[in-house]
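Lines hold sequence, tokenised fold; shown next:
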Amino acid sequence: MFTGLKLTNFKAWQDTGIVNLKPVTMLLGTNSSGKSTLIQSLLLLKQTVRSPDRSIHLNLGGDEVNDLFNFGEFDDVLHQGFVGDRQFSLSFTFLSPESSRIDNGTFFCSYGQNSAGGVAIQEWRVGTNEQQFKSIRREKGAYSLTVDKEIQPRAKGRHICPERSVSLSAEAIVALGQDGAVLEDLSLAIRRELENIIYLGPLRRKPERDYVWNKSNPGEMGSDGHRAIDVLLASALIKGDDQNRIIEGVSKWLVRMKVADKLEVKQVGRSTRYELVVHRDGVEANLRDVGIGISQVLPVLTIAYFAPSGSTIILEEPEIHLHPLAQSVLAELFVEVSKERNVQFIVESHSEHLFRRMQTLIARQSIKPQDAAMYFVEREGSVARLRSLELDDFGRVQNWPESFFGDALGETREQARLMFTRQQESQA
């Protein structure tokens, strides 16, 4: 689980400060304020560790099939009002699962440009509570490697350059002697933490009328949720102890949202094609024939049960096309599934209903304030600012940003005033 994040000179952010991440973290804010950039920073590192090129420093994207985002060039990422050198940095902290040899870890990397205009790591630091490793770029692309507070480097040269931002070469590991095994375990833990990110974006595919199932369980759902149906088909059709677990979990939440009574997979005649059928009030309908809200929330519900234990699920606008009650129930989904399945949710949203229900869940003690983090992102000119919303034990916000969700009481007062004025005019 990610426990902290910090960006400097990265796109809209001059300096985020330390962003504490919890089992359920919500990001609120105005359009184009910088919320998505916080999410994209982790996805940038994820697509870097997945790159087939071991020597790459940072994969800014461009491969439409394999990359999550295309960040453009170095100057597109560098904050326009950068402070100091032409560098930006990404750092995070994390807790590893009990099965890992590493309990917790830290990652820091700053990036500049090389002579060819490409991205080059300037300083790389990773560590645990017990040990710290540092690789710094020197002249002509050579790096020096130190451990803890040692003054003399353990090794120097081009071969000390970090690979894919998260690990060092075999030669560098050998140069560390007995400490090399610690760094290998730490690099593996960092890589796994990034690989365990599952991302669902705000734009999701519309459903088809029926689907061909290839008799396998997909390894991922896609950032637009296009493999969610494959996951549901596999859940219903693959025999075993896990059969129907995901589709039953999805059905449960559709019921709680009051948008369906059940979701069912049905074979189309005797063909190899299958359809998703939505049951509601005694009526069966193909997924294609029901409101768009159900098809758009299906990937959100599916990913909550599809993600392996220990994953970090990043969601952008999960509430899209949902009515207010269903938006509220999403907060309950995040809280309950996070506890039941040991997954972390980082959610970017504009939904007042989702946020208000999170406040209620804190007041009910369904989730402790220390297990939930709420942030409001706003712009001051070209610079993004982050406000940590302070919630008490009753879910009340102590430092609420003015007018973000509108002025509900003010609207009510204005309506009452107009009603009173009209009544007086009609009696005159």
